[in-house]
């Protein structure tokens, strides 16, 4: 019998458990400092200005992200690792009735043993869901669902039968702080709410948004729960295996965030560049239409073509270089010929009116125009009557007399006709007046009252034309004389000259071009800076792809070495060796050598070997994450006896520095773990299928096993040979001493959990005592109870009495005269029962 296998071990100090102290071979989550260092190396190696600029740009972004991050934000993935303290599930999978369990958070093995359907997977899945806050598992893979038409046949139903909502909750501890994670799951099986609560000893509990930390990446990169059934079901294709392994490389949240930021910035810059190019294309098309319009108006006139560029550095300079600085709406053209035509028309009307209205012999001649007009109107009347409209007397033939008088002045008709023609020409010529006024309106150099006066005179003459036609009668003549007076001064010359200048076809053309460019100018001002950076960010995006490949390659080499060791430990007897791991972006290529030295396809592995092969990567990366525990659900699926023993050896080694919780129905694994593990507790899991109640009962504690071993030695050992390595007395007393130590340790752990003390600190104090007597003294100090109440340590002392010194001496090789060993065993049992079963 190996006495040393039962020796208690202390947990590693916090400094040894912090990921920050992990060596370079560890696959811990990448930090921004790591990424910055990789960028600096790549920048130093860059062999072209473009690559140097891209790597420099990436480094600047990393430093910017680091600088803008909240320095006071608490990240649960930083610092020492977390211990698992408790689990509570309700309405989850097979646990219809609320179930809770407290775990020993110190290094060692916890075995949860029970048949299929006893609720073991509900426990492991509950821990996984509470830690991750999601119903799926290690990879961001959306499984097929009923809505997709491919309803998954073997997916678990997370919300228990008849439950409206499921709740899973875990409590983690490290030092003086705890972390409570609670996930609530709806009827659809998806997590509907995920709460995180942090509490520091002596302080108030405070909730925080765990999604803003690296926790999700830590859970994916260092999965603390392994379920063979779940992993085997999801790892079916090369890309599944690639995702499984790449998650374990722990590129993590920093890299993902950096990659997303580069993609966002690059995509935004590219989109700006496209929008600016589209604006430029539209501007070209609109300017082309303006050019075609003016060229059609003046075929002999031509402006220099616009010099287009997709890389305009300064749009104002570009506008100046292309003569596109004139701003304003396109104006109707006013030419010198049009102004001269108006002046000539004014002169013609003035001359013809003088001939008609000037030096004539009688009043009939002077009024000929009016009389003619009156005669024309009378002819339109059906019955003109016999009352003269001039003298208002009764003249029966006044219309005939009017016609005779007109005949007498017929010689004036040519002059009247000429006056009519010149007035008609004037009516057309004055149309330029409102055009001139519109062009110069708003210019500071012209008084607006002058423009209003001209508009008024123009409107009056136009109204006279509308009322009386182009005849030299009084209202028309009055309107003409008024407009002539306005157009004869210097003011009109200035107005018309300015209008001619502003409506020059070249200016109009340039102004028309500029008017079509406003959309492009606005787009340039809004987009050019970002668009200009598009080539740099595209190069930066390629650089981050190179960085990802470099990180993946480097970490794959480390992973390959670690995983190779674990494959050898689990499969060496079968001659299976991991030769290489080649991880690409969409697939994983694994090279495995068989016992004959030839390459072995993964499909050639047996079910048990495949299980071992999937476990190896997990074991290879366990020590890098923020979890000081590991849950293994059915890890010996299809294992033979040798594989069970090899797995037990690996688990026992892992359990030296963390708590390993094994859920299994396999009696072989339980036996091997109990035999190999220095600290191990076992529990039987059962479930009432009707009520949905999961129960957990502890099997024999280690101290009880040790007492039974002592009883067996006392009962069945032969006469002790003088040449034997250990005497019967030494063996029994050594077992009793270790049983008392284990019971004392369990008592301290239970009290620390009950009182909220730091378990690792309590056990550290206990392990500093080198003798059993001193350990009892220290334990009494740690277990601080009301002096008026009985104390478990005192009760244990009373039970074992003076035997303690003999047990301690025997455990260190001391010789003792054979005494009443049966009595000593009874004393040890009483002392251990008191410590191991004390109810706080």
Automatic annotation (TrEMBL):
Residue ranges of every copy of the RecF/RecN/SMC N-terminal domain listed in the record: 86-671
Q: Which domain of life is it from?
A: Bacteria
Provide the residue span(s) of the region labelled Disordered.
Answer: 1-23
Any Pfam family hit: SMC_N
Under InterPro entries, the record lists: P-loop_NTPase (IPR027417), RecF/RecN/SMC_N (IPR003395)
Residues folding into a coiled coil are none
On assembly, the entry states:
Heterodimer of SbcC and SbcD.
Q: Which family does it belong to?
A: Belongs to the SMC family. SbcC subfamily.
Q: What is this protein called?
A: Nuclease SbcCD subunit C
């Amino acid at each position: 019998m190996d006495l040393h296998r039962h020796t208690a071990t202390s947990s590693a100090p916090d400094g040894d458990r912090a990921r920050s102290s992990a060596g370079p071979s560890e696959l811990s989550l990448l930090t921004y400092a790591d990424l910055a260092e990789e960028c600096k190396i790549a920048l130093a190696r860059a062999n072209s200005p473009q690559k140097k600029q891209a790597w420099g740009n990436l480094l600047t972004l990393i430093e910017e992200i680091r600088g803008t991050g909240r320095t006071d934000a608490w990240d649960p993935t930083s610092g020492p690792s977390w211990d698992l303290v408790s689990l509570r599930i309700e309405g989850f999978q097979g646990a219809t009735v609320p179930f809770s369990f407290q775990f020993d958070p110190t290094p060692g093995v916890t075995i949860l043993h029970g048949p299929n359907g006893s609720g073991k997977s509900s426990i492991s899945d509950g821990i996984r869901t509470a830690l991750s806050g999601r119903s799926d598992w290690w990879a961001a893979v959306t499984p097929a669902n009923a809505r997709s038409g491919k309803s998954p046949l073997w997916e678990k139903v997370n919300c228990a039968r008849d439950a409206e909502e499921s709740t899973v909750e875990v409590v983690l501890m490290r030092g003086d702080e705890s972390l409570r994670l609670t996930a609530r799951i709806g009827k659809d099986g998806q997590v509907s709410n995920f709460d995180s609560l942090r509490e520091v000893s002596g302080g108030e509990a405070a909730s925080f948004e765990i999604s803003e930390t690296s926790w999700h990446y830590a859970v994916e990169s260092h999965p603390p729960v392994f379920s063979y059934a779940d992993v085997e079901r999801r790892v079916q294709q090369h890309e599944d295996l690639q995702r499984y392994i790449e998650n374990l490389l722990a590129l993590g949240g920093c890299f993902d965030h950096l990659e997303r930021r580069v993609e966002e910035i690059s995509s935004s810059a590219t989109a700006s560049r496209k929008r600016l190019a589209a604006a430029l294309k539209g501007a070209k098309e609109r300017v082309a239409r303006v050019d075609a319009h003016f060229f059609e108006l003046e075929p002999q006139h031509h402006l220099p073509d616009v010099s287009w560029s997709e890389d305009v550095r300064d749009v104002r300079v570009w506008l100046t270089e292309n003569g596109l600085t004139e701003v304003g709406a396109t104006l109707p053209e006013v030419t010198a010929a049009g102004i001269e035509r108006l002046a000539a028309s004014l002169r013609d009307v003035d001359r013809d009116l003088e001939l008609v209205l000037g030096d004539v012999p009688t009043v009939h001649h002077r009024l000929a125009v009016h009389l003619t007009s009156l005669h024309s109107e009378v002819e339109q009347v059906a019955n003109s009557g016999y009352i003269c409209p001039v003298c208002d007397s009764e003249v029966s033939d006044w219309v005939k007399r009017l016609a005779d008088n007109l005949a007498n002045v017929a010689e004036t008709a040519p002059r009247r006709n000429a006056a009519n023609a010149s007035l008609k020409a004037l009516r057309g010529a004055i149309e330029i007046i409102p055009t001139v006024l519109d062009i110069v309106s708003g210019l500071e150099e012209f008084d607006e009252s002058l423009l209003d006066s001209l508009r008024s005179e123009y409107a009056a003459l136009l109204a006279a034309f509308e009322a009386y036609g182009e005849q030299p009668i009084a209202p028309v003549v009055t309107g003409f004389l008024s407009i002539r007076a306005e157009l004869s001064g210097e003011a009109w010359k200035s107005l018309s000259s300015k209008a001619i200048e502003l409506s020059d076809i070249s200016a109009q053309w340039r102004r028309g071009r500029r008017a079509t460019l406003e959309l492009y100018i606005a787009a340039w001002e809004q987009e050019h800076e970002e668009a200009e950076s598009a080539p740099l960010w595209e190069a930066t995006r390629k650089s981050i792809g190179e960085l990802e490949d470099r990180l993946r390659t480097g970490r794959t080499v480390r992973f390959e070495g670690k995983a190779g060791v674990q494959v050898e430990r689990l499969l060496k007897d079968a001659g299976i060796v991991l030769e290489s791991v080649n991880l690409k972006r969409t697939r994983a290529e694994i090279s495995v050598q068989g016992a004959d030295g030839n390459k072995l396809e993964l499909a050639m592995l047996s079910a048990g070997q495949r299980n071992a092969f999937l476990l190896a990567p997990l074991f290879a990366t366990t020590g890098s994450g923020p979890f000081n525990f590991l849950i293994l659900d059915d890890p010996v699926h299809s294992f033979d006896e040798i594989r069970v023993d090899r797995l037990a050896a690996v688990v026992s080694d892992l359990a030296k520095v963390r708590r390993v919780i094994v859920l299994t129905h396999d009696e072989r694994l339980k036996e091997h773990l109990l035999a190999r593990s220095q600290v191990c507790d076992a529990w039987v899991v059962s479930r009432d299928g009707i009520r949905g109640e999961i129960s957990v009962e502890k099997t024999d504690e280690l101290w009880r096993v040790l007492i039974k071993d002592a009883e067996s030695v006392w009962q069945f050992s032969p006469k002790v040979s003088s040449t034997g390595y250990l005497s019967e007395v030494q063996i029994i007393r050594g077992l009793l001493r270790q049983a008392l130590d284990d019971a004392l340790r369990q008592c301290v752990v239970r009290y620390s959990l009950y009182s909220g003390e730091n378990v690792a600190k309590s056990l550290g104090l206990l392990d500093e005592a080198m003798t059993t007597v001193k350990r009892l003294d220290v334990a009494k100090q740690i277990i601080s109870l009301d002096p008026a109440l009985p104390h478990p340590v005192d009760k244990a002392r009373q039970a074992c009495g003076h035997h303690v010194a003999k047990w301690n001496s025997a455990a260190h090789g001391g010789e003792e005269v054979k005494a009443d060993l049966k009595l000593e065993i009874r004393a040890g049992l009483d002392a251990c029962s008191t410590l191991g079963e004390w109810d706080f």
